[in-house]
Amino acid sequence: MPKGTFQNLPEGKKKIIEEKAIHEFAAFGYDKASINRIVEQCKIAKGSFYQYFDDKKDLFLYLIKRVSEKKLKYMSPVIENPEQYDFFTLMRELFVSGLKFAADNPELTLIGNWLFKSKSHPIYKEVVDMGLQKAQDVYSGILKYAISENEVRGDIDLDFISYIISSMNVIIMEYYFQSIKQEEADMQKIDEDIIKIVDLLLDFIKNGIGT
Length: 211
What we know:
Blueprint: H1 4-7, H2 11-32, H3 35-42, H4 46-52, H5 56-79, H6 87-104, H7 106-116, H8 122-148, H9 158-180, H10 192-207
Helix pairs in contact: 2-3, 2-5, 2-7, 5-6, 5-8, 6-10, 8-9, 9-10
C-alpha cells in the first residue's frame, strides 16, 4: 500500500497519478505496464515514485483497492436499500449494478479482463483474496437482513454462505471470460450471456441441484 508521502500529496496530484496508472495498466496489462511511462505521463521524477510506492505491484494493488471502493460506492444505492427487493432479486440487482459500473468505467474493466484471463499469474490470488473479504462482509449483511425478513433460512452458517456466494461471483466472471467470451467482451453494454449465467447461479443458490 502507498507510503505516507503519497497520502500526504494534494488530492489533485494523487488523482493524476491514479488516472495515469490506471490508463497504463488498462492499455498494457500488469506485466507490460511501465513505471517509466507512468512517471513520464505524471511529470514526476522516477525517484519520487519510489517515495510513494515500493514497486509496480504495490501501485497495482493500491489501484485495485481504490477500484473496489469506487465500485462499492457505485452499488451503495442497492446495498443500502435492501427492503426494495426480495433477497434473490437483490442479488441480481447487485450484479447488474456491477455490470453498469463496468460499462461506465471501461479502463477499469480492461484491467479486470486482464486479471480474469491471467489466473496463473502470481498477483491474481492476491487481488481475488482482497476482493473476497470485502464481498463477504457485504453479503453477510445482506443475508442477515434476508433472515430477518424470513426470506433465507435462519440456521445457515453466515460466514460459509457469504464466502460461497462471493466465490461464485468470481467464478462467474472466470467462466464468462474463459468459456463464453474467448474474444474481448464489450463491457460497455450489459451482455445477455452473463445475465443468463447470473440467473443460473441464483437458481442454484435458491433450489440447489436436487430433483
